[in-house]
Amino acid sequence: MDMYMLLIPGLIFLFLFKYAPMYGIIIAFQDFNIFGGISGSEWVGMAQFERLLQSDEFMQVLTNTLLISLYKITILFPIPIVIALMLNEVRRMFFKRTIQTIIYLPHFLSWVIISGLFINILSPSGGIVNEIIRSFGGEPISFFTSNSLFRSLVVFTAGWKEMGWNAIVFIAALAGIEQEQYEAAAIDGAGRIRQMWSISLPGMLPTIVLMFILRIGSLLEAGTEQILTMYNPLVYETGDVIGTFVYRMGLGQQDYSFSTAVGLFNSAVGFLLIIIGNMLSRKFIGRSIW
What we know:
Structural class: mainly alpha
Helix content: over 70%
Shape: globular
Strand content: under 5%
CATH class: Mainly Alpha
Largest sheet: 2 strands, antiparallel
Distance between the termini: 27 Å
């Protein structure tokens, strides 16, 4: 009974900050008036969602969101796995811990700091990257105002910040593999590469599947906080994602009903993607979250 009592603070927190605010979803089905409140606003049914699906601007935002998320999954998802496998092969603990500390550190920096750092590094007037370009006779590049470069910049900075931290989960999975398996494989003549392929990767597979399903579920969350600190009106064409679109429409233009409808659409699709990803994982590789 005492153990169940310990759940009460967590359940209260979950109810107050996760479930109680869901009452505000009603706004998505109204023409919300901030002065009239929810009870005094006109009910419009699915009109906001019809407007959403007919909006050319939203279609562009949805395309940007999917492209940035897919880039992050295909390029950045495998990197922490590779890092974990490589660090697992390091035998000198001092060197291993030093490398881990260095690659973990960017995670603890806020996106405001990281954006400011890269804005200075990539600045067309005085940034170190453009100074190097000038030294070779090239013209300076305005990275943060280029539609052709902005998505690549978003993916690169996200990888630089999070790849070391994301590797922790896979390093923990490797730590749970019995060392006797490696010893038996070594006695049978398996080299380090063979052991990595036949023992380490299969041992990590449940964790890889779990993280991949969760990553699919957040497909429409392309890094709102990151992009908010980095983008500007010149790159809305390629950089505006659902999260930033909701921010601009809700707080910027005070179109609360439409922005709530967009957010609800985002959450519903994310939930559906998790279910589909879990079903496909269970069907094809026999592993799933539930």
